[in-house]
Structures are given as C-alpha cells and as structure tokens.
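Annex B. Sample input.
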Amino acid sequence: MIEFLSKGGVLVVPILLCSVLALAIFAERLIRFSRMTSRGAGLAEKVVGLINSGREKEAYAASMTSNSPMGRVLAQAIGVKNQDREILETVLANATENEVRNLSAYTQALATIGNIAPLLGLLGTVIGMIKAFMVIQQMGGKVNAAVLAGGIWEAMLTTALGLCVALPTIVAHSYLMARIDKYEAKLENGSVAFLTAVLKKE
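Annex B, continued. Sample output.
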C-alpha cells in the first residue's frame, strides 16, 4: 500500500495528514459530546424544580457540579436572577452563545479539510499530468501507450485519494453540526424553562 501511494507524488503526504487530522478531530468531538450529554441529562428540569420549590442554593450547587454546558449556563443565570428581566435574558443568551462556540471548536477545521483535500488531489493530478507530457516530449513525440497510461493513472491517484478523504470528512462535519444544533436547542429550551420559573415566582 505504501509503495502504491508513493506513486501519487509528494502531495499524497499532506492528503494523508489531512485524513489523520480529520479523524482525530471527529473522534475528539464525539467523545466530548458523549460525556457532555451524560453529565447534563435532565439538569434543566432538576434546576427548575429546585427554583420552583425555593431551594435556590441547591439549584446553584447542582448547576455548578454538573460540569456541563447546561450547568454553566444555568449557574450564570442563577447568579443574576434577581436582576431585571432584560439583564437575565442577556446573560442567558450570552452564556448559551459561548457554550455553542465551545461546542463548535475545531469543526471549522474539519470543514476546511473537507474543502482542501480534493484541491490537493487535483493539484497532484495536474502536476502528474505535466510530468507525463514532459516525458512524451522527451520521447520526441513517439508515444508509448504503456508509459502514457502509467503516467496518467499515477497522476489521477491523488485526485482519488483527495476525494476519499474529503467525502467522509464532509459527512463527519455535517453530523457534528447537527449534534451541535440539537444541543443548542436544548440549551435554549433550558434557558426558557429557567426564565419562566424565575418570572413566575415574581
């Protein structure tokens, strides 16, 4: 396999590095999301219940100890729950935005890899084709079909490799963004539930 890939030229190396980086980012995000989901499950409902029963200190402690995005958002909101509604809404919105930004870390790099991998492959193909036609020129126009075919398939190898890296990377990016959007909706629902509970007490 190494010998086969080496025929694609020097651009095979950065394409393979892109694949390794994309896999590492995807695995890291999956692990992060799985831990985040288990830690924050049912937290909003629990905190709202504590707020409704007047156990605000327990609600704050539950938010802080959860070590989850939902917990951090609610903890900040509890800290300013006695402020004006506008301030409370601003804190909730900013806290949610910050958590979504943290959840989206490295996903832009994944999208970039999905975009540049096929371009690297195309560049490798162009360079390979240039070399193939240089060989033809050096042969004085006496085209050897075997030499020409060999040069072309070696040139096309990088394009195929770039596409093989780009396609799963794009799918992985779309999957992660869907997970982020879903969790953002949970954060917003939790914020609305908290805000409703606080305003109801007033």
